[in-house]
Design brief:
The complex is a heterodimer of chains A (about 290) and B (about 90). Chain A has helices at about 5-15, 20-25, 30-35, 50-55, 100-115, 135-140, 220-235, 265, and strands at about 45-50, 65-70, 80-85, 85, 90-95, 100, 125-130, 145-155, 155-165, 180-185, 190-195, 200, 235-245, 250-255. With about 290 residues, chain A is of the alpha+beta class. In chain A, a hairpin with a 6-residue loop joins strand 10 and strand 11 (about 190-195). The two termini of chain A are about 15 Å apart. By secondary structure, chain B is mostly helical. Chain B is built from six helices and no strands. The longest helix of chain B is centred in the middle third of the chain and has 24 residues, at about 20-45. The chains are: A alpha+beta (about 290), B mainly alpha (about 90).
Chain lengths: ~290, ~90
């Protein structure tokens, strides 16, 4: 069977993902509410800054030492600020590469609320604590936070991969920015294949840590959580992005109503979603069993 | 002017996310498609449209239906997903 192309994927999305669910999935605050209601663990919300007045009067002294702020309707990492420590009694914040003052933070919040980093006209700013990678994953990727993408057909996982940051990717897991794509066996959570760019690799290029054959921590929980995201958000075909936090375990970062197709090249296996709405409730037949990634 | 502004903005976004080479390639491909469509439309003279509007419209609708209902791989995807096809064939 051939790989799933953009045309076929768009047809699947048109038939399986209701318009309202797609709009909601683009809003991280709304998505977190829906996921929480559906029993899906998500990162804690520190606060949501809703309007310009709240942004201008925002008191950052109440924030913890390590946090992240992002536009609720942003994408591709636009407008995301990661803070790794407080400086000068919380008057300044340390971010990778520079220092952020309280005044600059408030200016950034007004930019987020004005929609500078979002797809819509205006937006809200979402504060979350900075997550720490599970020790087993931190070994694989000392720079940045590796995440796991599982493409699901309703509640049925189809393919999974980990996106592992490198020094060259600047701590980001995005494959086109130099991150590593690692195909994961859905059954036992082992990395079966890894690529850096288009080049197959067995070990991490920065640390020589072995990737292929490594089993990801708490895999059964990761898959079970991914299964719940479709029913919780109303999406029939979706990509679920998860991390395994050192303290709280697997958490869903976001769901994507238009998941990318590159996962097929990483896994060397085609996506096979159903073309109709009949499987939206997650009814699984033996024919629909997940395709092990070998 | 508006289309060019959107195109340039998309190119900047694409350069930031996907890198400059991908952005330039996307920009060039979009312009190539635009010029091809413009050249094809330029061939439809007012005389042809006036005398043969019905078959022209029917032909346009047929082409749209055929292209719009195509669900196979796009030309660029044939090479993009060739590793998947090769792996499947090996199995």
């Amino acid at each position: 069977m051939s790989a799933l192309g953009i045309n076929a994927r768009n047809q699947v999305i048109a038939r399986r993902n209701p318009r309202r669910a797609i709009v909601h999935a683009r809003d991280k605050v709304l998505t977190k509410q829906r996921l929480t209601a559906g029993g899906v663990p998500v990162p804690e919300t520190l606060c949501v800054v809703q309007d310009r007045r709240a942004a201008l009067g925002f008191d950052d002294a109440t924030l913890p030492d390590r946090w992240v702020v992002k536009p609720s309707c942003g994408s591709g990492g636009r407008g995301v600020v990661v803070v790794v420590g407080a400086i000068r009694d919380r008057q300044e914040w340390s971010t990778p590469g520079r220092v952020l003052t309280s005044k600059e933070l408030r200016r950034h919040l007004t930019a987020i609320i004005g929609g500078d980093h979002s797809t819509g006209d205006d937006d809200v700013a979402l504060f979350e604590p900075l997550l720490r990678s599970h020790p087993d994953l931190a070994l694989l990727a000392p720079a940045g936070l590796p995440d796991i993408r599982i493409v699901c057909d309703g509640s049925l996982p189809l393919l999974a991969m980990a996106r592992i940051p490198t020094v060259a990717s600047g701590g980001r897991g995005n494959l086109h920015q130099g991150g590593i794509g690692a195909a994961i066996d859905l059954v036992d959570g082992r990395i079966t294949r890894a690529v850096h760019g288009r080049r197959p690799i067995d070990v991490h290029p920065d640390t020589n840590q072995r990737l292929v054959g490594t089993r990801l921590p708490r895999w059964d929980e990761v898959v079970e959580i991914a299964r719940r995201c479709g029913p919780a958000t109303g999406l029939g075909y979706l990509g679920v992005d998860l991390v395994v936090d050192a303290d709280r375990g697997p958490l869903v970062l976001e769901v994507n109503s238009h998941p990318g197709l590159e996962i097929q090249n990483v896994a060397r296996s085609p996506l096979r979603p159903a073309r109709s709405r009949s499987r939206r409730r997650g009814t699984v037949s033996p024919h629909d069993a997940p395709v092990p990634v070998r | 002017l508006v289309i060019m502004a959107i195109l340039i903005e998309r190119t900047w976004d694409s350069a930031r996310v996907d890198g400059p080479s991908t952005a330039v390639r996307l920009f060039a491909m979009t312009l190539a498609v635009a010029f091809t469509v413009a050249a094809a439309l330029a061939e439809l003279s007012p005389y042809v449209l006036d005398r043969h509007w019905l078959p022209t419209a029917a032909f346009g609708i047929a082409i749209n239906l055929a292209v719009g209902s195509y669900r196979g791989l796009r030309l660029t995807e044939l090479s993009r997903f060739s590793p998947v096809r090769t792996a499947q064939a090996a199995r």
